[in-house]
Amino acid sequence: MECVFGMVGKGFALVVADTSAVNSILVHKSNEDKIMVLDSHKLMGASGEAGDRAQFTEYVQKNVALYQYRNGIPLTTKAAANFMRGELATALRKNPYMVNIVLAGFDRDTGPSLYFIDYIATLHKVDKAAFGYGSYFALSMMDRHYHQDMTVDEAIRLAEQCIEEIRSRLVVAPQNFVIKIVDEDGAREHSWRRTTRD
Amino acid sequence: MNRVKYRISWFIVVQEITSSNTVVRTFFLLNQRVNDLVDISQLKGFRFEFSLSVEIMKLDFSGLESSAPLYGGSNELLSDGFSAAPSFDLPVTSDFDGFQKNSIQMVKPAKGTTTLAFIFKEGVMVAADSRASMGGYISSQSVKKIIEINPYMLGTMAGGAADCQFWHRNLGIKCRLHELANKRRISVTGASKLLANILYSYRGMGLSVGTMIAGWDEKGPGLYYVDSEGGRLKGTKFSVGSGSPYAYGVLDSGYKYDLTVDEAAELARRAIYHATFRDGASGGVASVYHVGPNGWTKLSGDDVGELHYSYYPVEPAIVEQEMTEAVVA
After folding, report:
1. Percent of chain B with pLDDT over 90
2. Would you tell me which residues 44-83 of chain A have a C-beta closer than 8 angstroms to some C-beta of chain B?
3. What positions of B carry a catalytic annotation?
4. Which of A162, B159, B265, B274 has the lowest CB atom count within 10 Å?
5. pTM of the prediction?
6. CA B116 to CA B273: how far, in whole Å?
């Protein structure tokens, strides 16, 4: 029931994720932040098995930081995406990580970019991406209404439309969503869309 | 033993079960005339225990053998004197994969328990029931499900008792080592991360642990939920176990951050009681602990049966009609 989706706009990239931590029929928490800030200009929205999600995203975060300390410059979004994919691919035939990731980043020279990374180490550079049951609703909505070079307001409005669609049509829809944005000023939390308070 | 010579003229399936093991070997005997020694007392329906005498023709059953591996030479029946390959007994089943899955499910405990913990103004309140059940059998009504990791941290037990007890004890050891190495107490965040990493490394190997780590450190009260799938959640209110949905209902409706210690204890006790009332796998004694700035203290341990009658005392029944003694003339 986890929903993560994202899109690229004019000079920014957006990632939206639900914030529920669920165990069979029980919702343990409805304010669990699943979009990790990888470094100053990268966001990683992850969905999948609880333990794998936390462990893999933290592992990637620490390695990205290590590269920066060793080499003095941060990784580009493309390099980080390929690193993640490499790790997933290496582990795939032994002890696979069941995590799906949407990576959004802003680079000074190439601008905003969005990467779709599957749990079986698929990697695609895309304009819009979605994972989970919510993807069935979000992808077609984004296909219909997305266009190149959207402004922040247009993109937020599209994200809200997707959230509303998920809320009304998905049988066990998550209660709350968080929206995070990355642009030339950095990666930060934009807003929440709540129906319940935790 | 009677030596019986008979013609078997119908299709029969003979299961041979030796006295030492239970490997099944099936044969189809049709229209054979066999000299065999049959122990009449063993005849029960289609089960025969027999051995072929050496003089008769050696029947070649190799094409009819089941896929079970050959067993060792204790059975002289189809052995030609050479020892068979090393083997082990297979269970008597036609669907081995389903059997394997079911046996793992049987061994894996279903977390029949109710535990809860919540953070409030005065610290952390931790409560649990004390029933251990194996399927439909209640094996104990007095299990300690709140484990004292160290004087300022508690862990709750749900899932496999051995797993929880051992790994909490191990966590206590690691916390003490951290204290000695760093000259300061470990934080609840750190302790829960240690446990979560250990459990993650054993992922998929059958550990069953659903625990909450509650403690008071420099940042104040802390509560984490850690489970054997590798998940770790920071929160203010958790309940774990088969009775947890029932406990959540009472807990959510009565919770306020500004409770006093007594009110919070009563809320926790009430939530456990209601869970034990509805959930068959929870019961026994409702224990309530409080973790404050100076460590944990046990507040109460009440039998839930007695709690029931204290919350819902027996009303004298309204008598509509009374029988009176017949007047004897």
Report:
1. 49
2. 49-52, 54-55
3. 113
4. B265
5. 0.72
6. 12
